């Protein structure tokens, strides 16, 4: 069971839970922090990369950035080269949940603390210092609760665009949504397939769903595990001659600027926000850890706020558009 602590943008936390033994010398400005990023599959990912670079620069951190192009093997190679180089700390956004134990153990043996960003791993928690991520089951639940409330007792056949197979957001967001619709037999997920968190695959998968579901006429809602797939799916719905947001409800996760544009056009109905600022809290907790040697709270959980067209989509678009999405 994860210990949860809500992190808002710009805040950081220090707890005393856990007894991991990593290096604890002072944090100097010239220290290098390695960041193994997944790739650039989505607008949200691009914003996370941009915000991480900005947050590092603000703190005078020398950030070594490695783009894994969606491949776990590239992430493992990057982490090994960070270890060989003797970086002060490592940030990693793990593409999938499994297969990290060996490399995390190598980092721990080298006394290099690792902070996980935005996704989790299936590995003993003593192998990393902390994680900064959302509660992905909650995100799915927030999306599902919105649908339950919106459709009431009406029958609703849902199609689901899943994220990357084996990634914690795909697993958690599916689980949370299913939990929310349990007990509402009028709502059923009739098709579910991965769109790998990309706009192009989201569109492709949705085209298949539309064909298989009477040209889309028997679909009531599209639930996408991220906004990019939703935007691709919206295009597919339009190409099929239907109105996204009206004929087919659209609910997704991330709150990227493009989904607010879609809301302004009446083509998207709800999104759950995922902050792209995972690195700010990670740098803060590392800085405090190096300064005082205090072990931070293990799981630092970001907020999951629901946005609908009632929440000033234009203002939300303007607020985000310069953030690198
Ligand atoms: O891990 C976070 C997810 O990864 C975001 O929701 C998605 O857009 C990204 O690709």
What topology emerges from the helices and strands here?
Elements: E1 6-7, E2 32-37, H1 43-58, E3 62-67, H2 72-85, E4 89-92, H3 101-109, E5 114-117, E6 130-134, H4 136-151, E7 156-162, H5 168-181, E8 187-194, H6 199-212, E9 221-224, H7 227-239, E10 249-254, H8 257-264, E11 270-273, H9 279-292, E12 299-302, E13 306-307, H10 313-320
Parallel strand pairs: 1-12, 2-3, 2-4, 4-5, 5-6, 6-12, 7-8, 7-9, 9-10, 10-11
Antiparallel strand pairs: 11-13
Helix pairs in contact: 4-5, 6-7, 8-10
The protein binds alpha-L-arabinofuranose.
Residues 41-42, 44-45, 118-119, 169, 197, 226, 228, 253-254, 274 line the site of alpha-L-arabinofuranose.
Task: Describe this protein's structure.
This protein is of the alpha/beta class. Helices cover 39% and strands 19% of the residues. The chain is elongated and about 60 Å long. It has a seven-stranded parallel beta sheet with strand order 1-12-6-5-4-2-3, with helices on both faces. A six-stranded mixed beta sheet has the order 8-7-9-10-11-13, sandwiched between helices. Residues 1-26 have low confidence and may be disordered. Helix 4 (136-151) runs parallel beside helix 5 and helix 6 (199-212) packs across helix 7 (227-239). Alpha-L-arabinofuranose binds next to helix 1 and strand 10.
């Amino acid at each position: 069971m994860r210990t949860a602590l809500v992190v808002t943008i710009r805040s950081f936390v220090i707890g005393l839970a856990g007894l991991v033994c990593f290096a604890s010398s002072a944090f100097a400005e010239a220290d290098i922090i390695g960041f193994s990023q997944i790739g650039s599959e989505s607008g949200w990912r691009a914003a996370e990369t941009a915000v991480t670079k900005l947050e590092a620069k603000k703190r005078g951190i020398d950030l070594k950035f490695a783009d894994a192009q969606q491949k776990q093997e590239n992430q493992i190679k990057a982490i090994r080269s960070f270890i060989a180089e003797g970086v002060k700390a490592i940030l990693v956004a793990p593409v999938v949940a499994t297969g990290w134990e060996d490399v995390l153990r190598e980092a721990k043996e080298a006394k290099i603390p690792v902070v996980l960003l935005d996704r989790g791993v299936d590995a003993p928690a003593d192998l990393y210092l902390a994680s900064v991520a959302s509660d992905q089951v909650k995100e799915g639940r927030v999306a599902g609760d919105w649908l339950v409330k919106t459709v009431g007792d009406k029958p609703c056949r849902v199609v689901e665009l899943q994220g990357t197979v084996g990634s914690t957001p795909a697993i958690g967001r599916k689980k949370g949504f299913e939990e929310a619709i349990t007990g509402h037999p009028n709502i059923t997920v009739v098709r579910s397939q991965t769109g790998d968190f990309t706009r192009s695959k989201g569109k492709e998968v949705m085209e298949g769903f539309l064909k298989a579901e009477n040209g889309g006429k028997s679909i009531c809602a599209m639930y996408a595990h991220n906004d990019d797939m939703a935007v691709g799916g919206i295009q597919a719905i339009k190409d099929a001659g239907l109105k996204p947001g009206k004929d087919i409800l659209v609910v997704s996760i991330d709150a990227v600027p493009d989904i607010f544009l879609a809301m302004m056009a009446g083509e998207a109905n709800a999104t759950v926000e995922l902050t792209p600022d995972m690195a700010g809290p990670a740098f803060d907790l590392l800085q405090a850890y190096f300064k005082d040697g205090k072990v931070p709270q293990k799981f630092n959980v970001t907020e999951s706020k629901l946005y609908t067209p009632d929440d000033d989509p234009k203002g939300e678009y303007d607020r985000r558009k310069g953030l690198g999405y």
